[in-house]
Design goal:
It is built from 17 helices and ten strands. By secondary structure, the protein is an alpha+beta fold.
Length: 438
């Protein structure tokens, strides 16, 4: 016999309403993932579903090995497989890329963000492998320079949808200038060591870059250097090939998290770069860098969101299967309250990331806010997962401690979250914060 509690549940109660009343409230048995996906354009739904399927079939089985044996893990077969499935070519629409047209016309990066979240659910480090490739391509796209498109971007973008893509990396960080070069005030005082000296036919580059994601495996890099000793105002973006004489890979960092994607040092010793490999125009590097960060920060937020979602999903599974006394953990109300809070936090972070990504012209404040909120929220959710699972979360086989390690990095790269907060202040200062009340 049906209990009073069962009768009062929303789906049953809704049956008593008229047809119009039932239409006003959606009580279909859908997961939150399904509900969010239904709000997307058809093309974006397609890529979210494809990325989920690829992540579960190809990333989940190797996620543990890729993290714990990352020095010996060969990432190239996975990258080539993803490229063949179109996962590295959604920065352009056909015939050069595979992005769906309608969502692309609303945002150039939204489909990449959807893929980044799904991949990061299973492994934050493998998610970074793929998104770092997009980051390396981004200066070529966002320079807004027709000769750069024709010479470099379009051929590389086309190659990204083949079985053997030319893998890219993005190199701005220097030994004494990390997040400094990701904010105007810090950039003005940054201590830069990488220089480009004019010579016959091009430039000679000297110096080094550090913490370069995919620096080891990338075949080409978009790299920023000052002209002579002129400082950040002269910063110029160059496209470098790993085969160029004088370019070498130095130390590879031992990272706490996101280990499958290496963080490597790039060493430049009289590397000749021809004029044609200047990305955009000479001395446009600072503007190009700002454009890239405005587009990439919400994607970093999406990756952090995916890492936290993975921790939540594994915690939920643990709570279903684990008993305390004669009841599952899931049946205790205090556990349910914790899980509900995790759901709320993830949902809020996704809403903010999607709001930022859906803007055709990126907005610096929205981009920085999405990155900060999503990465801070992800770390909070992973901590809650650790607390719910106790000792079990500390064991690598569950993947929750890995997610916690991975999300911590999301609060640091692409500008620390403190720098991103300052970016919001800078953007809104004259128009809102310091302005006289109306």
């Amino acid at each position: 016999m049906e209990s009073l509690e069962d009768k009062l549940r929303m789906p049953n109660a809704a049956k008593r309403l008229s047809a119009i009343g039932r239409w006003l409230v959606d009580v279909r048995p859908l997961t939150l993932w399904q509900r969010d996906t239904m709000t997307l354009d058809r093309g974006a739904r397609k890529w979210r579903k494809r990325a989920l399927d690829f992540s579960r079939r190809h990333i989940r089985p190797v996620a543990f090995e890729a993290d714990y044996h990352h020095k010996n893990f060969d990432v190239l077969p996975l990258m080539n497989l993803a490229a063949r499935n179109g996962m590295l070519s959604v920065l352009m629409i056909p015939p050069l890329g595979r992005a769906s047209v309608r969502p692309y016309l609303k945002s150039a990066v939204f489909q990449a963000a959807l893929i980044g979240e799904e991949f990061s659910v299973e492994s934050g480090g493998i998610g970074l492998l793929f998104m770092a490739h997009y980051l390396g391509l981004a200066p070529l796209l966002l320079a807004g320079h027709i000769p750069t498109y024709v010479r470099h971007y379009l051929p590389l973008q086309y190659k990204s949808k083949t079985e053997h893509p030319v893998l890219m990396a993005f190199a701005i960080t220097e030994p004494q200038a990390g997040s400094d070069v990701e904010h105007t005030e810090g950039g003005a005082k940054a201590r830069l060591v990488t220089t480009a000296e004019p010579c016959d036919g091009g430039y000679k580059l000297n110096g080094s870059k550090v913490f370069i994601s995919n620096g080891k495996i990338a075949q080409k890099l978009t790299l920023f250097a000052q002209i002579g000793q002129e400082g950040l105002d002269s910063w110029t973006c160059f496209l470098l090939d790993k085969e160029m004489p004088g370019l070498s890979v130095g130390r590879q960092e031992r990272k706490m998290g996101q280990r499958p994607s290496d963080a490597s040092e790039i060493i430049l010793q009289d590397v000749f770069v021809p004029h044609k490999n200047v990305v955009g125009k000479l001395r446009d590097g600072w503007a190009i860098n700002k454009n890239v960060l405005n587009y990439s920060r919400p994607v970093v937020g999406a990756m952090a969101l995916g890492q936290a979602r993975g921790a939540f999903e594994r915690t939920l599974e643990f709570c279903r299967e684990t008993f305390l006394g004669d009841k599952r953990l899931l049946d205790y109300q205090d556990v349910q309250l914790q899980l509900a809070e995790m759901i709320i936090q993830l949902w809020a972070a996704r809403s903010m990331v999607w709001h930022s990504c859906r803007q055709l012209r990126s907005n610096p404040s929205a981009s920085a806010a999405a990155k900060v909120f999503a990465s801070d929220t992800a770390y909070k959710v992973c901590t809650m997962a650790m607390e719910l699972m106790g000792d079990h979360a500390y064991l690598g086989k569950y993947g929750v401690e890995r997610a916690l390690r991975d999300t911590r990095l999301a609060q640091i790269y692409e500008g620390t979250n403190q720098i991103n907060r300052l970016a919001i202040i800078e953007q809104q200062w004259d128009v809102e914060l310091s302005a006289e009340p109306s």
